[in-house]
Amino acid sequence: MTQSSTDAAQLGQFSFGADYIREHFGNNVALATQQMTHSVFRQNSEAHIDHLLRCLALNGDESLLDLGCGNGFILRDVVSRLRYGGYAVAVDVSPAMLELAKRNVNVAWVPLTFHEGRAEDLSVFEEGKFRRVMANYIFHYIEDPDLVLGEVARVLHPEGHAIVTIETRHSMPEMYNLHFEMMERIGFPSDFIERLPRGRRGVMVLDNAKEILSRTFASVEEKPYVDALRFDKAEQFMNFYGNGHRLLGVKAHAGDTISQTMIDDLYTAVEEAVAKQISNVGYFEISKQASVFVCRK
Asked: Are 181 and 171 in contact (CB under 8 A)?
């Protein structure tokens, strides 16, 4: 058991490890809902993918590794920028996500292969194989970031660079604060509430990312991306909260402890609170803060 696993066990927190990832991302509903919401309701005039592409700084003929490719939402745009001489490899722990990525990445001018595997073990790839490595939002599920970063550095070409995209631990505080306020008001068991994360989970988050990344890479440059999601209808937010985030872990861990009635009451209470705020001020907004770290050996 890793130190982070031990700490989680001591705190009684729910596990969000590899088994959770395979179950949570066993279909496209949650991830696609999040991606659609971020794309449609963003307040930043620059799309997140354009920010990522600037950080990747592709010539087009690079070898590229997408570590934790998910359903291929980001990879689709990135790989279409590659040209003759380049190639891409996509890795994910979830077979379901890999199948979705194969279907979603429908424009590639270069060889593209998919590999099922964990970020902690990239031994199938030789040292210095890739001139670009991207790891977008995977470290919220990584228990040993130093191990993963060591693997990234090993497969990274000496003249290449990696990008690591990560959120601050307290991103989207308006959603989390409302969620826990309604849970307490409805009467969810206190021990159940305490076991749920109150923000982005993971050993490495934006707050400590540069320090951790600098243990592996000689050069780490932070490129912030600040955004907000603004909703003028309650159902827009509820789709994001209910389907995209599955009530922030409540659905995934309800088990026999939490009744369906309590879950329904939580959903209704959050929806009513959001609708009230929209009625009062015209919108409900949640703030987001993430950064892309450009890492060189």
From this structure: no
Q: How far apart are CA 110 and CA 22, in angstroms?
A: 29
Interval 61-103: pLDDT, tens? 999 999 999 999 999 999 999 999 999 999 999 999 999 999 9
Determine which of 19-28, 64-73, 231-240, 286-295 has the lowest per-residue pLDDT on average.
19-28
How many CB atoms are closer than 10 A to CB 59?
Answer: 12
Q: Give the separation between CA 269 and CA 188, rounded to whole angstroms.
A: 13
Domains of the chain and any CATH numbers: 3-170+198-227+288-296 (3.40.50.150)
pLDDT at 2 over 80: no
Which single residue is written with the structure tokens 């971020």? 38
Asked if residues 94 and 119 have their Cβ atoms less than 8 Å apart, the reply is no
The tokens describing 237, both together, are: 């937010």
Nearest to residue 71, comparing CAs of 95, 54, 47?
Answer: 95
Identify whether the C-beta of residue 295 lies closer than 8 Å to the C-beta of residue 162.
yes
**Distance in angstroms (rounded) separating the CA atoms of residues 103 and 123:** 26
Summarised one tens digit per residue, pLDDT across range 114-150 is 999 999 999 999 999 999 999 999 998 899 999 999 9
Q: In terms of C-beta density within 10 A (0-12 exposed, 13-18 middle, 19 or more buried), how is residue 193 classed? A: middle
The C-alpha atoms of residue 185 and residue 114 are separated, in whole angstroms, by 46
For 225, the token pair is 């991306």
Q: Which residues contact 117 (CB under 8 A, 6 or more apart)?
A: 91, 92, 93, 124
List CB contacts of 3: < 8 A, sequence separation 6 or more.
Answer: none
DSSP letter string over 203-244? SS-HHHHHHHHTTT-SEEEEEEEEEEEEESSHHHHHHIIIII
Q: What is the H or E stretch that residue 166 is in?
A: strand 156-167
Q: What value does the mean pLDDT of the chain take?
A: 91
